[in-house]
């Protein structure tokens, strides 16, 4: 690896290689090595979660959302899938010289609205301005702090044979929304980003019990997330193509562009691994929430296919779902 490419930011094979071979080699922290969406930390008698993320999506505004909402919701969701109640957000903004002030105002207003919807408070921040041409309009970094719920320990180590895989709804909406705005392509239908805060839905799920692990499938889509779960484990994952919801507009766009919806980014969905006995109960709870009304069981954890994700196709075949190899849709978040 001599240079960094766009593929290193895809959330796929090269991203994981970069993290393991360079970052973890130097930042040799046991907490960091867990590679969770947020670090779970003991502070005195309390347990908190801390996360950080950066947003470079292009364009800044697209159907259903914008970079400001994404920055808040993404941070809230990364805390929530670890079992924390999100509370406080920091915001760092890097601005290119020449950006219209009204654009910045609109982004800041979106962040304010998103914070109110998610029930979090922006408490600190920073602004930097760089020369014209040294940044593409505006980038955002957010960090978040949340308080862990009592007796909540979500981990891939909890997953066992027979556990069910649930998604909270359709996949690929966000990635296709951004792509359509970026390229000026109308794929037909009303494709909007699914960006949303999932903390309230997740709180309901956790109270039901039976949750082993959860993650929000952003970069690399559900393919990347499921591979992260199965990697180096003594179990495999089988998913059913017929059970995975892909909206018609997303399906049409994927067919036209040669994309696989399994690999397209989401910003308002979760993958939940639950015990077999609790699956029906949790599914009902999710479907009673507007952000989970299209939830469905898409697969299960199996003894064979260790370390692999297998898709059973609609025509009766099967294929391996690999970790993403390159960058399908750069700057999608």
Automatic annotation (TrEMBL):
GO terms for biological process: protein maturation. Pfam families: AIRS, AIRS_C. InterPro entries: HypE (IPR011854), PurM-like_C_dom (IPR010918), PurM-like_C_sf (IPR036676), PurM-like_N (IPR016188), PurM-like_N_sf (IPR036921). SUPFAM superfamilies: PurM C-terminal domain-like, PurM N-terminal domain-like. Gene3D superfamilies: PurM-like C-terminal domain (3.90.650.10), PurM-like, N-terminal domain (3.30.1330.10). Residues 37-148 form the PurM-like N-terminal domain. Residues 161-311 form the PurM-like C-terminal domain. CDD domains: HypE. Belongs to the HypE family. NCBIfam families: hypE. This is Hydrogenase expression/formation protein HypE. The gene is hypE.
